[in-house]
Design a protein that fits this description.
alpha+beta, 2 helices, 28% helix
């Protein structure tokens, strides 16, 4: 399936893979997820990062810090012999403890040869 961009920019409450209108202007206090996908030599790769636009409120900082910490816990888990299916649970346990939840309506996509 054709996806129209190699970079998605999700602003504030946009959950994933946002493609803002051309006239969208970032504002002080926005949080933005920049998600970059690369296809090279038959392989797909994907990464994203949350950024602050200017000064953000404490709740936005806490949300971004919580997701960052969950990501780090998931990375620390990844070692040979570990079950891939456990990664989501590690993330879920951390964010729920902080009062957040994940969006179950969206699922991930692959990396490597199959996207």
């Amino acid at each position: 399936n054709y996806y129209p961009r190699s970079v998605s920019t999700s602003i504030n409450e946009v959950v994933t893979h946002g493609i803002p209108c051309e006239d969208t202007v970032l504002e002080e206090g926005d949080i933005v997820n920049i998600d970059v996908t690369v296809y090279y030599d038959g392989m797909h790769g994907d990464c994203s990062e949350m950024i602050f636009v200017g000064k953000v409120d404490d709740e936005a900082r806490r949300l971004v810090q919580t997701t960052y910490d969950a990501w780090q816990k998931a990375i620390a888990y990844c070692k040979p012999g570990r079950k891939y299916q456990d990664i989501g649970g590690i993330i879920e346990d951390h964010i729920e403890k902080e009062g957040y939840s994940s969006c179950r309506e969206f699922v991930g996509h692959g990396i490597g040869k199959i996207f």
